[in-house]
Specification:
By secondary structure, the protein is an alpha+beta fold.
Length: 166
C-alpha cells in the first residue's frame, strides 16, 4: 500500500497534540476553537492549503483513556514559516468536540478501514500526519453530524494560537 500522501489520496490532515504534556484538555475546554497548530516543515506542509479538512488527535500514554480524535475543522490558509529551525504554524478553523463526541483510539483500532491509519502505525511521527480518503470517510461515521458538534453553529468566542507540535 502506498503510504506517501498525494493530492489524490489525501482525505484530511491529522494534527497531534500530546495530552500528557501540559493540560491539553483544560486548554481546549476553555476555548473549543483552534486557530492554529504547529507543524514541521517538509513536503506535506507545502501541500497544505485553505479548505482542506483537518482532524485534531490527542495522543498520550496508552493506559489513559480518551485519547484519539478530539476535533475537526479546516485549514484556512497556507502554513506560515517559523524562525529558522522552528516549527511552522498552519492556520485553522477547528472545533473541539465535547468529550462524549470524541472518538477514542480504541474505536479507530477496531474499525478495519482505520486500523492502517498513519497515526496508529507511527504514533510518534511529526505533524502533520494524514488520513486517506477512505480513512477520513470511515472516521466521519464515528463523528456526530456537523450541526451537532461543539460550537459548530455558533461563531467562535476566541482562537487558540499555535500549539502542540506533538
Amino acid at each position: 500500500m502506498n503510504r506517501h500522501v498525494t493530492a489524490q489520496n489525501l482525505g484530511a490532515w491529522l494534527l497531534k497534540g500530546n495530552a500528557d504534556v501540559g493540560d491539553l484538555d483544560a486548554r481546549l475546554a476553555a476555548d473549543p476553537w483552534v486557530g492554529g497548530w504547529c507543524v514541521r516543515p517538509g513536503y506535506r506542509v507545502r501541500m497544505m492549503t485553505g479548505g482542506q479538512p483537518v482532524v485534531l488527535w490527542a495522543s498520550g500514554s496508552r493506559r489513559a483513556r480518551g485519547y484519539g480524535v478530539w476535533g475537526v475543522g479546516r485549514v484556512t490558509g497556507p502554513p506560515v514559516p517559523g524562525r529558522p529551525g522552528q516549527p511552522w504554524t498552519v492556520p485553522l478553523d477547528l472545533a473541539v468536540l465535547d468529550p462524549p463526541d470524541r472518538v477514542p483510539r480504541a474505536v479507530l483500532r477496531a474499525d478495519p478501514r482505520l486500523v492502517g491509519a498513519e497515526v496508529l502505525r507511527q504514533p510518534m511521527g511529526a505533524n502533520p500526519s494524514w488520513l486517506t480518503v477512505v480513512e477520513y470517510a470511515a472516521l466521519g461515521e464515528h463523528l456526530p453530524p456537523p450541526g451537532d458538534r461543539t460550537g459548530r453553529d455558533q461563531p467562535p468566542t476566541g482562537r487558540h494560537g499555535p500549539a502542540g507540535a506533538g
